[in-house]
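Shipment paperwork, digital attachment
Item: protein structure file
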Amino acid sequence: MLSSSSWKPPTQQLLQSADLISQGAEAAIYKAYLRQLPTSGHGVDGAVLEASEPVLLKYRFHKHYRHPTLDASLTRQRIAGETRALMRCMRSGVTVPGIRMVDVNEGVLGIEWIDGKSVRQLLPGGAELEDVSEVEEVDEIYEHDTADPIADYGVSRDALMDMIGVEIAKMHLADIIHGDLTTSNMMLRKQTSDLVLIDFGLAYHSTLVEDKAVDLYVLERAFASTHPDSEPLFVGVLGAYEKRMGKHWLPIKKRLDDVRLRGRKRSMVG
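Attachment content:
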């Protein structure tokens, strides 16, 4: 029997058994497995079979430079905020990972593990790639297979741009601002070839045209800095976005032009 001093909460036990994928300044990302008891299915001698589901755990670890009370409060707010954004997206038909567990006290959000690749990896370029092994993996794809890697998912490049525009439009129609739209935060699912928006850690609710225009501008800059000759690609994204937004597009377009102008002025000033 475990002593009270050695006992750890279930979420901490899950983190200990998980594999660390990456770690940033704010959070660590793990791959873990949740065990579920199926409604049907039995093993030998009638024993219930357990199914293990892969999940992604986002762990907002304690920041020792902050006061413990403030740190706990901020962590709870951010976990709750990301969870609300995901739930609002799901209710509005936006393709996002499903929520598998939430523990605001431990700072952990568990979401569906998406089996696939990021759009960043599938499009030509790689300026955002930081992991050497990941660079080598992408280089190997292009070296041994001259065909467009997107074709392995059964979609064309133009179709992928359409999917990106549609998903962002659905998100904005739900008044959710992503806050960090890059091709790194979009994944193409291997099984179904659908586009999944991920990482809503900076997401928030807003009805402002300005916020939606800035969201688009962030993505436009991400395309330009990451993927060479990406202007036609982003034009495709905006075309699908415009079609889905309907009457809401014109004010966003005008504001996007203003945001672009402000961005160019800042670049000139340095």
